[in-house]
Amino acid sequence: MKALKIKEVLEINTTNEFYTVQGWVRTFRANRFVALNDGSTIENLQCVIDFESIDESLLKQINTGAALRLKGTLVESQGGGQKVELQVKKVILLGASDPERYPIQPKKHSLEFLREKAHLRVRTSTFSAVMRVRSALSFAVHEFFQQEGFFHVHTPIVTGSDAEGAGEMFRVSTLDPKNPPLTKTGDIDYKSDFFGKETNLTVSGQLEAEAYAMGLGEVYTFGPTFRAENSNTTRHLAEFWMIEPEMAFYDLDDNMNLAEKFITTVLKKVLSRCEKDLAFLDERYTKEESSKPLIERSPMGLLEKINFVVRNEFKRVSYSEAYEILRNSKPNKKKKFQFPINEWGVDLQSEHERFLVEKHFNCPVILYDYPANIKAFYMRRNDDNKTVRAMDILFPGIGEIVGGSQREERLEVLEKRIKEMEIDKEELWWYLDLRRFGSVPHSGFGLGFERLVQFTTGMNNIRDVIPFPRTPQNAAF
Ligand code: 4AD
Ligand code: MG
């Protein structure tokens, strides 16, 4: 008989039928009660082992972490706490687990401890809930764009260009680091490297997505991106997943409208599809928050926060307006900001973003028209000649979740900017071609997928929303 998933079993209303289930033991009580979980749902199935039908040696092997196949009759539960339970007639041990050595005991473990056990942490309620929500979000992302008529494009992972111009790239090379071939002038000779040139892991699929938008109209990428920035924060990973839509004929307003619709649609889908996981994470979040000092506590619960974002419009504010708000703000006047705001043109730090979102506006904020000097080369120059058509979306508790812009479609303006910023023009010949042949206004943005998962699950550290995080000094597993 085919085994059923525990999620399916728990949805069955007719009892006294015979079923097979399989999963891992979460707890084993009183030599009788197995809480079995197979990952299909946050809930465990209570399985009651009949003493008579099992020999002593097998009974000893039913330990936390062991894998079992159980066959038995589904009955209305005798005890409270669950609707149904399985009266087990046959126990098959698929994989034993040494109770002395299995690290995931049925008690609360710290997230730091579990990070060291990243290969096993998905067997906890918290991580399985987070990963199911992550999967649902990923599906909702594809669903949204496909329903909007966008085409999914797979942009390359290995590339020669630095899209963001920040120089934070991981080199891809097959040269022997101890003995690299050298040119006559003593530099490393990348001509003899695998690709015959310098290459790196991509920091963004945007530039290639732009090429495809110029033929397919509306496209999106959803792939891994890599940044060798030495940021040890709760919001940075060296390997993260980014969703990057790119649209021909869109101006910045169209871009902001799409981004807002995208985020709220995806959140709504997950609210209705991950009810149990989110209810669990909501409770967890409330507990975590209550252990923080009062001033650091979130004024809203997790579900409340998600619903708030879904129901309320994002506030749109230009950089210059935000600058004035920040300059005149209490923390700035009282010198409470680590980076004081005293000159138009400064880059906003996360303390400023959080002030705007969490203290001043109390809702998601879209900041637009940033100073050109703090943004990438490809953004469209405004007529004031000092700002560009950039937009960042800032979220409570997260800070920047989206970065995007209208792109510079005018060849001369783009060439001038590339020169000013001392970017290698040769590498971008094909990107400039897009402005030579049928150039049109176009826009796009990038949403950091893990930051969205963080927001939706209420997990404080980005390392806890990706299966195997890569951060400075850490690429275990
Ligand atoms: O603002 P960023 O750098 O924008 C781009 O890469 C553009 N090419 C996007 C585009 O217009 N197509 O990154 C976009 C988003 C950020 O807002 C943030 O959510 C996320 O990517 N992000 C990171 N997430 C985790 N770890 C990091 N180190 C991140 N760096 C950026
Ligand atoms: Mg950005």
CATH fold-level label of the largest domain: BirA Bifunctional Protein, domain 2
Unreliable stretches: none
Q: Give the full name of the CATH homologous superfamily of the largest domain.
A: Bira Bifunctional Protein, Domain 2
Strand tally is 16
The coarse silhouette is globular
Distance between the termini: 36 Å
Total number of helices:
14
* CATH architecture descriptor of the largest domain: 2-Layer Sandwich
Mean pLDDT score: 95
Work out the count of structural domains: 2
- Gyration radius (Cα, Å) is 27 Å
CATH class of the largest domain: Alpha Beta
- Percentage of residues in strands: 15-25%
Coarse structural class: alpha+beta
Order of helices and strands: HEEEHEEHHEEEEHEEHHHEHHHEEEHHEH
Strand order, main sheet: write it out: 6-10-11-16-15-14-13-12
Helix content: 25-40%
Largest sheet: 8 strands, mixed
List the main descriptive attributes of the protein structure presented here.
16 strands; 2 domains; binds magnesium ion; globular; five-stranded mixed barrel; 477 residues; OB fold (Dihydrolipoamide Acetyltransferase, E2P); BirA Bifunctional Protein, domain 2; single chain
